[in-house]
Amino acid sequence: MLWMSCLPAAALLLLLLLPCSPGQKCEGNGQQTDIISVWEGDSISITCSRKYLEEVGTYLKTSKDRVNVLFVSRQGTSRIHSTLVNRLNYSEEGRNLRITLHNAQQSDSNIYQCSTYVKTEGQGHHKELCEKEIIVVVKARTGALEQSPLYASPQPSQSINITCALKSPYEEFYLLKTHVHRERVLCVSSQNTSTTSLAFANRLEYSNEEKKIVITLHNLQENDSDIYVCAGLVKKVPYFLVSGSGTMMLIKGTQIDCRNSFWIICALAIMVALLLTALMCCALSRVDV
């Protein structure tokens, strides 16, 4: 489906989210990236900004080949890709355009981009402005990417390995945090160039084989707890983004030693009992007098 046509690396905010490879074909303006992770059959909701007064229309496109998924003009007319007419709808909410894709399929996994065409000086001239990119991961129960482990619960400062094995060679590989703090943790190209988020700078290592990547996250902290999903851009025509089942990682917090707490409570209880006994003795002695 053209909804899952060719993909590029996402251009992400500041040094935290730098692209694996160049590929922007329109002017950026405060670009950022959203990450959406859903199961097959769920709905995908994407919001595009419509903030330009001189806007001609807003597009949702695939990032690399710029295939039009949806176009909505300022006058309210629209065009939806023929393969998505029965599953895609949109609504205008103030200066935002909310796009919903129903009954998500794994083949919908892709990297998309909101863009706006605006009028420029000179009759008949327009300029395309990129608003943001959206990495969409639709997870199937079984797929072309195997990820392990499914669950991990390390102690703070410990390390963990996440293994991602693809059945086909990849063009680009991603490790994504998809729930609590959504971000792109790692991006590796087929040329073995990579970018790592600032949150894991100096804490991430990986080994790269043709169809397998082992990622090691070091010195884990409680705020690293999240669901980590592997995703790979497979070398097929059209390109296809496959994803793993995810690794749910919960970093254990510092626990109080229950034995020490027990003795502290016992000592306090004894002190209170002795104090009450002393007070009662004083009261009785005064009554006797």
TrEMBL record:
Superkingdom in the source lineage: Eukaryota
InterPro entries in the cross-refs: CD7, Ig-like_dom_sf, Ig-like_fold, Ig_sub, Ig_V-set
Domain named Immunoglobulin: residues: 33-139, 149-252
CDD domains: IgV (cd00099)
Transmembrane segments: 262-284
Classification via SUPFAM superfamilies: Immunoglobulin
GO terms, molecular function: signaling receptor activity
Signal sequence, renumbered to the chain: 1-23
Database matches in SMART domains: IG
Pfam families noted in UniProt: V-set
Keywords assigned: Membrane, Signal, Transmembrane, Transmembrane helix
One of the GO biological process terms: adaptive immune response
GO CC term (a single one): membrane
Protein name: CD7 protein
Naturally occurring in which organism (per UniProt): Psilopogon haemacephalus (coppersmith barbet)
Gene transcribed to yield this protein: Cd7
